[in-house]
Specification:
This protein is about 40% helix and about 25% strand. By secondary structure, it is an alpha/beta fold. Strands 1, 2, 3, 4, 5, 6 and 7 form a 7-stranded mixed β-sheet that branches. A hairpin with a 5-residue loop joins strand 1 and strand 2 (about 10-15).
């Protein structure tokens, strides 16, 4: 989860205050909900990731972007024939071994908010008939089987990182997992 301020020149500058607040709110909401239903849950902070976990978090970002483009997007892969058979590979089982978990939920989110200078530039450019991007967001979460590495569930974030959206996603996942009594580790804070 990372937030950026999109400057007038188009350079995204990391916004630590927003990023820290979003990470803390997300982590708190997940832990509070898990505690309320008695689910076995471990939340892993990006500062505590092992080299393997960092590798799989980066791989998840790449696979998730490909999934958005080639499964849900316009650029379908003919060889997949519409099948949802995406994976991080069986090596991800090391995370399951480290945390005694059956599944991991990887979360990827980037938000680019326009600065005041960017908004002013956009208004001036519009007067000249030129469009200037004001910002963007991309986010997704994947539930990964830690034995096979298969992505068994994928959610695309729409409408921003609002507590109700993410808490709803977490509640759904934890409810399903609590019914079948699996343990879950959440990898959500990117480097």
């Amino acid at each position: 989860i990372k937030y950026y301020l999109f400057t007038a020149s188009g350079v995204p500058e990391p916004h630590e205050e927003w990023t820290t607040a979003a990470r803390e709110n997300f982590g708190t909401a997940v832990v509070d909900y898990a505690d309320s239903i008695g689910t076995d849950l471990t939340v892993v902070d990006g500062a505590d990731l092992s080299p393997d976990e960092m590798t799989y978090e980066a791989l998840h970002g790449a696979v998730g972007m490909a999934l958005m483009d080639h499964h849900f997007g316009m650029f379908k892969l003919p060889a997949k024939a519409g099948a949802f058979d995406w994976s991080l590979g069986p090596g991800v089982s090391s995370i399951g071994d480290d945390y005694d978990a059956d599944y991991a939920m990887f979360v990827f989110y980037r938000d680019y908010q326009a600065s005041g200078g960017r908004v002013a530039l956009s208004i001036l450019a519009a007067a000249a008939g030129v469009g200037v991007p004001m910002g963007a967001e991309v986010g997704f979460a994947s539930l990964v089987d830690l034995e096979s590495g298969d992505i068994v569930w994928f959610y695309v974030v729409t409408g921003g990182l609002k507590a109700s959206t993410w808490v709803g996603v977490i509640q759904f996942i934890l409810l399903v997992l609590s019914i079948v009594a699996f343990s879950l580790v959440i990898i959500h804070f990117g480097p």
